[in-house]
Amino acid sequence: MSRADQAEIRMRIVLDQPVDGLLYSLQSKDDGPLDPKRSAGGEPLAFDFPVRIAPGPKFFGDQVRREGPERRFVYLRVGQSAGDCASPWNGRIKVDIHDIPQDLLDRAVSGGGVAEITINGTGKAGKPALATIKRTKLALASS
After folding, report:
1. Eight-state DSSP code of residue 133
2. Distance between CA atoms of residues 143 and 9, nearest Å
3. What is the mean pLDDT of residues 74-84?
4. Percent of all residues in the chain with a pLDDT value above 70, rounded to a whole number
């Protein structure tokens, strides 16, 4: 599929209730950390990145990972994986994007908004959420 058949949109992952002081980052195409951030007081962290969309929908981009013929997701790195060698935590959060409704994607393409996914960053007993995290909110936000 050529890039001419693809439309680029902005996506944002909002990490609500991150663990205080813990470093988070997007995972880049070369598997390194990208845009590292940490919350000092529990404030949400936002990670913005471009995604190309083709009919289907199919997703492409430096942060997009694939699993099987349809599943597409983005990784948020946590602790050591995000570049904090002193952190007791080391892992990733998998955020699915393949199931974003087509109408929201169409509105992002035509209106220039940001497809925003909100997830909860804290799991049981105040530990960081790891593995595949279900989103708590999906919206079209302004840039």
Report:
1. -
2. 11
3. 95
4. 98
Q: What is the CA radius of gyration of the chain?
A: 15
Q: Helix, strand or coil for residue 60?
A: strand
- The one-letter amino acid at 11: M
Domain span including residue 103:
3-141
The runs of H, that is alpha helices, within the chain are: 102-111
- From the list 139, 143, 104, 103, the residue with the least C-alpha distance to 10 is 143
Short-list 8, 40, 13, 39, CA closest to 110 = 8
> What 3-state DSSP class applies to 143?
coil
Give the DSSP letter string of 77-126.
EEEGGGT-TT-S-EEEEEEE-TTS-HHHHHHHHHH--EEEEEEE-B-GGG
Burial call 29-52: b when 16+ CB within 10 Å, e when fewer: eeeebbeebbbeeeeebbbebebb
Model pTM?
0.92
DSSP secondary structure letter of residue 61: S
- The number of folded domains in the chain is 1
Around Cβ 108, how many Cβ atoms within 10 Å?
A: 23
